[in-house]
Structures are given as structure tokens and as C-alpha cells.
Amino acid sequence: MARTKQQDLQGCSNMEELESITTASPSRRCFDLVGRESVAEEAEEEEDKERKWMNRRRRRKRKKTENGNEAAEVKCNEEDFLRQDPLEGLGWDIMLKILSNLDARSVALSLLVSRGWHRLASSDRLWSSKCEELWLGKAHIPRLSQIRGISKLAAYSLSVMDGKRTRIMRDDLCDHAWEFHFTKLAPEYWRNLDPYWKGTEPLMHRYFHQDGSQTADPGDRVWGGHECCFSVVTSFIADGTIREHYVRINRWPRMSVSRKQDWSWEMSNHLFCYSSVPDAYKKGGTGPVFLFR
What we know:
Strand content: 5-15%
Number of helices: 11
Distance between the termini: 129 Å
Structural class: alpha+beta
Strand order of the largest sheet: 3-2-1-8-7-6-5-4
Radius of gyration: 50 Å
Protein name: F-box domain-containing protein
């Protein structure tokens, strides 16, 4: 096959270059070899730098991925912890301490969470302190909360319900001593005999008995030793709501009944007033055994 003119010229130039190299001086050949070696070394250094840079990049990427996985795992663990039942995660004793710092209503609501929470939130250890807080400063502790064998939760609940009771019963009258004094509208000669107005002697006291009688302290000048009886009158309307409720002694005007915030009682009319003497210390409590309105 015939060679072109360009191929002939290229061949000639390659031959001349080869001839010039082979016929060159030794120093020239050494310079060319050193130059080629330096270029090779530079290329290797560049490759080495690039390799190290790629390795550092891979390590950073791998570390970032590991940190991301750890963060995701920590976040997942936190979410699992938050979704976990605190009773299982913290234990009975710690949860008992937490609930003891809550108010009674919040503790009562936790009874509805689960069976485990119900057992915890109804324990006597928890409600004993709640009962003590409830009874602190109260004039009378209801008898129905002191029944032997009743749980502290039930004692607390019954005490609250009894504290809202405004209907006085015969047991209430008979269980308490009553301070007695005349009102400002009573005749002056009565008030002159009353230590409440004189301010020099202890107040007069009255006592109710289950047989319907009433007595006073010995030497009471107002009492005079006369016979006295009482009655509690309560009437209702059709739906069971109390229509009227009062206490009457002999034929004296009826006394309206009221309940104070400390669970003490007061009975009064325009002539005289009775106030129950606080007796929270009384063993077994006071008042009726059954709950009334």
C-alpha cells in the first residue's frame, strides 16, 4: 500500500529525533533522564496527595454517617423512653414519691390509667398523708372515716363528702359540746348574765343527749335547772331536695343550721346561738355512721 507524503515526513522526523538522542552527548542524555524522573516523581506526589485527600474525605463521610446514626439511635431511645410507662421505667418507690407531691385530685385521676397505676395510686402509704393534710385544722373528724379496716383512700373520700354535708343529725348534736351565748337582740338582763358579753368568764356550754334532752354545766345561772328537750326537723320536696331544715329547743324559735369550712356546726336564731366545740382529738370520730346530705 503506498505511503502518503505526510506519513513519510512524520517518519523522517521521528527517525531524526531518535538519531539526535542516540548521538547526543552523555550530559545531554543524563539531563533528559533526570527531567523525566522528576516529572514522574511529581506525578506520583500528586497522585499521593489526591489519594490522601480522598481517604480523608471518606473518613469524614464515614464519621459523619456514624455520628448521624448515633444521633438517630439516641433520638429513637429518647422517644422510646418518653413512650414508656413511667411506672415501669422509674419503679414503684420513685413514682410513689412523685404522686405524694401531687394534690389529691391529680392522684385520684391517676387511678384510671391502668391496673398497675390503680394499685399504686390507691395505696395506704400514699393516702395516709393525704388524710392528715385534709383533717389538719378541722373541728370534727367524721366517724364513718374512722371505721376499722377501711382504706385510706375511702377514708379521704368519705371525709370530703361528709364535710359537704349541711344536714345536721342527732348524732352530731349528741357527739359535740356546744358553746352557747345570747345575741345582741336578746333582752339586756339575759346578756348581763352571759359571760360572752361580760368577757370575764368562760362561755356557757350546752349538751344534747340521745333521749332528746339537753343539759348545761353545774352552776350555770342562765340554765336554772329547768327541763329542756330538742328536736331536729327536716322536710323534703318531691325530688328529694331539702325544703327546710332546723333544730328547735322546747318552744323557743327554730334555729337555722349552717356548716363552716372547718366542718364545725352553728345553730342560731335572733335570740341565741350555738357553736360546736372542736373535738378532732376524739377517738373514733363523730357524727353519723352513714352518709347523709
